[in-house]
Amino acid sequence: MVVKVYGPVTAACPQRVLTCLLEKDVDFEIVHINLDACDHKKPDFLLRQPFGQVPAIEDADFKLFESRAIIRYYAAKYEKRGPNLLGNSLEERAVVDQWLEVEAHNFNELVYNLVLQLVILPRMGKQGDSALALSCQQKLDKVFDVYEQRLSGSAYLAGDSFTLADLSHLPGIRYLVEDAGMGHLVSQRKHVNAWWETISNRPAWKKLMKLAGY
Amino acid sequence: MALKLYGAALSPCTSRVMTCLHEKEADFELVPVDLFAGEHKQLPFLAKNPFGQIPVLEDGDLSLFESRAISVYVAEKFKETGNDLIRHQSFKEAAEVKVWMEVESQQYHPAISPIIFQFFAAPLQGKSPDQAIIDENAGKLGKVLDVYEEKLSRTKYLAGDFYSLADLFHLSFTYYFMKTPCADLINERPHVKAWWEDISSRPAFQKVASAMNFGEKMN
C-alpha cells in the first residue's frame, strides 16, 4: 500500500517529506491540497492536521503530521534501505539531530519570512514588508557564515555523509535561489555553494523537481 | 566520565536539558556561562556553539548544541534508566512523540517565546513590554492551546496516555509564562490546566524550577 502525502507538491514542507520518501524508494501518492482555496483550513483536513498545515501522511491506518517528525519516522523505518539518512551510532544520530534543530530554529523562520515578503505576498497581489525582508536577509547572512565554516570541515552538515540534516534544507534553499533572488547567499560562499550543488543534484531531489513541474 | 552541561540555571533551554537529565537519573555537572557578561557570544564558547546559544553538552569527545537534540540524545543514551521519555519499545508510540515534539517546536514555541521575551528580557534592555507583540502572540498561542485542549481531552499527555519528551519540552518556557498576566490562557482550559499541573509537579522538574528565578531578578 502506498503512503498518501497530503499537500501540494510545490510547497516546501510536503517537499521535505517527498524527498525523503524518494531517497528511501518508498511508494507514495500525492493527494493535492489547494492552499489558495484554503482546503487546509477546512474541517475534513483539520481532522488530519489540527493546526491546519501541510503535509500530513496516511500509511495504511497510521497517520502523522509535522514534516520533520515524518522524515525522522521514515528514515528510521527504512534505515536499512537506500542511503542512511540518520547516522550509524547514537553520537552520529545526535549530530544529525543537532543540525536538523539548527534548520528548524536558526534557519527556517528567516527563510520563511524572507520568501513570504519577497515572493508569496506579491504573488497574492499584496505588498511585502521590505524592511522585514532586509532584516531576515542580514540574519540569514550570519547563519550562512556559520554553515560556511562548518562545511569547510565536512562535506555535509552532520559529517561526511548526506543525512536528514542536509535534506531538510533543500526546499527552503530552492525557494531562496530560484524564487526569491537570494542565490548570492549561497553562490558567494565556496563551501555552501559546493554543498548546495551536491545535494540539489541528488537523483531523488531531481525527481521531485520534475514532479513539481520545475 | 560525567556529562558537562554549559548553560545557566535560569535559562529555559538549559532547564529543558536538565529536566531530561534528572528524569533519566544521569549525573552531570552544570558549568555556568555568564549570559549577562555576553560569554556565550564570544570565544571560547563560540567554538562550542557557533550560533552563540546555550546550552552545550559535552560527553567525552561528543559536543552537542540545540537543547532538543541534546535532550533526545540523553533520552536515547539512558533509555534503560529512569523514566521512559521516548517510547523506544514501540515504533508507533515513538513516532507520536516525534510529532508532538515537533508541534512544541513549530507551533507552541514560536508563540510563547516572544511573550516570555517581552516580559522578561525586554526590561533588561530598558524597554517596557510591547503589548502589541504580546497580544498578537497570545492570540496565536490561544489557537494552539485550543488544539491541545481537544487532544488532552482524549489522551492524558500529548503523545498518548504516557508522559514523554513531548510534554517535557513544554515545561521551562511555560513555567515562566505562568508568571505573566497571560497565564489565563492555560488556566482557562481545563484539560490543559490539569496537564500543566501534572507535568510541572514531577520531581525532575521541581529540582530545576527552584533555580529558574529570572522573574525574581527583575523585581
Features:
heterodimer, A: 214 residues, alpha+beta, Glutaredoxin, Glutathione S-transferase Yfyf (Class Pi), Chain A, domain 2, 2 domains, four-stranded mixed β-sheet, 10 helices, 4 strands, 57% helix, B: 219 residues, 8% strand, globular, cytoplasm (chain B), glutathione binding (chain B), Glutathione_S-Trfase_N (chain B), EC 2.5.1.18 (chain B), glutathione transferase (chain B)
User: Unreliable segments of chain A (pLDDT under 50, ≥5 consecutive)?
Assistant: none
- What's the architecture of the largest domain in chain B, going by CATH? Up-down Bundle
Q: End-to-end span of chain B in angstroms?
A: 40 Å
Could you tell me how far the N terminus lies from the C terminus of chain A, measured between alpha carbons in angstroms? 28 Å
Mean pLDDT of chain B: 95
Largest sheet of chain A: 4 strands, mixed
CATH topology of the largest domain in chain A: Glutathione S-transferase Yfyf (Class Pi), Chain A, domain 2
- Share of β-strand residues of chain A: 5-15%
User: Could you tell me which chain pair has the largest interface and how many residues each side has?
Assistant: A-B, 31 and 29 residues
CATH topology group of the largest domain in chain B: Glutathione S-transferase Yfyf (Class Pi), Chain A, domain 2
Question: How many strands appear in the DSSP assignment of chain B?
Answer: 4
Tell me the series of helices and strands of chain A, N- to C-terminal: EHEHEEHHHHHHHH
Classify the secondary structure makeup of chain B into a structural class. alpha+beta
Mind telling me the CATH class of the largest domain in chain B?
Mainly Alpha
Contiguous helical run count of chain A: 10
CATH architecture of the largest domain in chain A: Up-down Bundle
Number of domains of chain B: 2
Explain how this protein is built.
By secondary structure, chain A is of the alpha+beta class. Chain A is 57% helix and 7% strand. Chain A has 2 domains: 3-78, Glutaredoxin, CATH 3.40.30.10; 90-208, Glutathione S-transferase Yfyf (Class Pi), Chain A, domain 2 (Up-down Bundle), CATH 1.20.1050. Chain A has helices at residues 12-23, 43-48, 67-77, 90-123, 130-151, 164-167, 170-179, 184-187, 190-200, 203-211; strands at residues 3-6, 28-31, 56-59, 62-65. Chain A has a 4-stranded mixed β-sheet, with helices on one face. In chain A, strand 3 and strand 4 (62-65) form a beta hairpin. By secondary structure, chain B is α+β, with helices and mostly antiparallel strands. Chain B has helices at residues 12-23, 45-48, 67-77, 91-121, 131-152, 165-168, 171-177, 184-187, 190-200, 203-209, 214-218, and strands at 3-7, 28-32, 56-59, 62-65. In chain B, strands 2-1-3-4 form a 4-stranded mixed β-sheet, with helices on one face. In chain B, helix 1 packs parallel to helix 3 (67-77). Classes of the chains: A alpha+beta (214), B alpha+beta (219). Chains A and B meet through strand 4, helix 3, helix 4 and helix 5 of A and strand 4, helix 3, helix 4 and helix 5 of B.
